[in-house]
Amino acid sequence: IVLINEVDPNNNVIQSYNISSISWNNITKQDSIYSYTTTLPNTKSTLNVQLTFNPLNEHMYVDFAGDVIPILPKSIKYQVELQNYTFSSSLNTMEFVFKSGIIDKGDDCVYDESTTTKKSLDSIRSIQMTLNGETLIGTFSDRIVLDDRPSYNKVNQLTDDQIIKYQLNQESLYVSIATTYFKSSVVVDPNFGVLVSSNPDSNACKKGFASWKIGVIVGCSVIGVGAVAATTMLIKKKRVQAKFDNQMKNMNKSQ
């Protein structure tokens, strides 16, 4: 998560919260499910992030508000909840901004790179980014939970003008999830995973797979996934906890 924005009916940003600069508390209590919480600056609003790691070598399927979402093997499902936020007006909306992309490429050879976006009606359903035979897939539900009630939402890719307006990195891809006014809480549930090509071109680059990693940076206006802004997707189960804690200490480097 990069940002959480409160937006008025004229698309003016009333309040903006930079998630990458927030400190998080680790409240994890069980294996494969990692929980973090924080408070938005100058508010009494609580932002909770739950990460569920699929340790299996097969897909898991999760029902979120009636939308069945596949979780890839060895990948992560995020669930973000914002509680007790006080809107300036009941006409305003909340925007969660995710930064999605391939990171840490450095100076390595890039011989195959592409980005594909799939939509369901007018809402983004998934984003697929490929680099040198490895594919990062982000899936976005068109559902949210507002005040404990399932509701539909719309997922958009930020335009160049919006990226400039929000002062974000213009070389990155950003996705926003907008929610309507809520009194108590809102829950958003995206997930991300990595597929490894079975036939990578080993002769295209000499540095090998270990010289770079695919990652995802999730930035959001209302979502709070900033706790894991630079989570490496190719992880071992036993090392997940340490990696998340380390990433949260260095979030400022992800923007």
Number of strand elements: 20
* Uncertain parts: 103-107, 117-121, 195-200, 206-241
How many discrete domains? 1
Distance between the termini: 10 Å
Shape: globular
Can you describe this structure in just a few lines?
By secondary structure, the protein is mainly β. Helix content is 6%, strand content 43%. The chain contains two helices and 20 strands.
Chain-wise SSE layout:
Elements: E1 3-7, E2 13-18, E3 25-26, E4 33-39, E5 46-53, E6 60-64, E7 67-71, E8 76-83, E9 93-100, E10 113-120, E11 123-131, E12 134-139, E13 143-146, E14 149-152, E15 154-157, H1 160-165, E16 173-179, E17 185-188, E18 191-196, E19 215-216, E20 231-232, H2 240-249
Antiparallel strand pairs: 1-2, 1-9, 3-4, 4-5, 5-8, 6-7, 8-17, 8-18, 9-16, 10-11, 11-12, 12-18, 13-14, 13-17, 15-16, 19-20
What does this structure look like?
The chain is built from two helices and 20 strands. With 255 residues, the protein is mainly beta. The protein has one domain (3-102, 139-198, 214-253). Strands 3, 4, 5, 8, 10, 11, 12, 13, 14, 17 and 18 form an eleven-stranded antiparallel beta sheet that branches. A five-stranded antiparallel beta sheet has the order 2-1-9-16-15, with no helix packed on it. It has a two-stranded antiparallel sheet with strand order 6-7. A hairpin with a 2-residue loop joins strand 6 and strand 7 (67-71). The radius of gyration is 18 Å and the shape is globular. It starts with a strand and ends in a 6-residue tail after the last helix. The model is unreliable at 103-107, 117-121, 195-200 and 206-241 (pLDDT under 50). The chain crosses the membrane at residues 212-235. Keywords: Membrane, Transmembrane, Transmembrane helix. It comes from Polysphondylium violaceum.
